[in-house]
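Example record

Each entry pairs one chain with its bound ligand, FE3-S4 cluster.
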Amino acid sequence: MDLNQKEKDMLKGKYGVGVANAMKILVGIGDAFYAERMVEVSRVHISLSNQEGDLWFANKLVEEGARCCKIATVNPAFNKEYFENVCTFTEQELKVFEDTMSAYRKIGVVPTFQCTPYFVNNVPGFKEIVAFAATGASCFVNSVCGARTNRESSQSALCSAVTGLTPLYGFLLDENRKADTLVEVEAEVKEDFDYQLLGYCLPKKIYTGVPVFHGLSHRPSSEALMNLSTQLNVHGVIPMFHVVGVTPEAATLEDALQGEKPKRKVSITKADLDEARKTLSHGEGKIDFVVMGCPHLTIQQIKDIAAMLEGKKLKSELWIFTSCLNKELSKRMGLADIIEGAGGRIVEDSCVDQPIWAHLEGKKGLTESPKCAYYVSRRKMKLIVRSIPDCVNAAIKGEVN
Ligand code: F3S
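Structure tokens for the complex follow.
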């Protein structure tokens, strides 16, 4: 790669061993992808995980003196307060949780512990070059914000946070952002939940690429676009998408295709969505719990849930995952009182994909998120996927129809 003098100095260790090692990794990635040079990033999001390898890497950079020079938010971690009474953890597990939080604080991240930073405290603008890890978040900022990021790993994003740089390749370049797949949406896609199904269906047809959705009959809400960005990357690898007339690089279909012909054309029909609904939503009878918020629920979604729960008592457990900011807002708005008064719990800073469900293993539950169902299936939990209103009604009745 063609490095400038400052970048060469970073690589040689003038700015410390941690920065030198971070640069070495970024140069290695750049070389692998034939990047000609580095570019500055303005902000970073890191998919922190409570795993030993991730902790080892963060600690190594901390000990070598590296510190974030850019705003860097982090994914959810683990909130001991909610789970210590319902799960048992080994000392080793607790140590990894606590050491991870400590290492990331020392390196200087903004400890948001949330997976939708693009809504509140890390919102990139159009054409801004950033380094975002977390597949749903990177897809959202590429597609909906029109910012430019590759699908970073936790480690490469951390390297960008401490150097302020990323190699110039992939989705930072105009030519790689053009749609290669035209998706004609023939089904009616209207509710936010329909976008969960759309995000589930499409990867089964194309797996990877840059799709452009054409023919949507209704404008998607922010929550719908959040659902789509997330679910496209559960069974597929879709770093960005366009929606004609909605996302910033797709004012027209021609814009999204950058004047070229699509390489593939697929359609999403009513039968596709019905099939997805049947596969994901199948199940009835008594339930033990409902878990929602993968990705973290927005304040609008929490408000809708509270409206349904006013004056009600839940017959099943209800777990709602959200950011600390939304949790605070829900308290200020009186929503937390309603939800907790009904027997539900609003959990901030945490993620459904943590070893926190021992008490629910083997029990029957519901979620609004196909991603959540997929992740927790590794923990011997089988979840039925329904819309948020259906999930709330099921939690009230203790059963699903
Ligand atoms: Fe967020 Fe964890 Fe789901 S990071 S998207 S709650 S798997």
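The longest helix spans residues 91-107.
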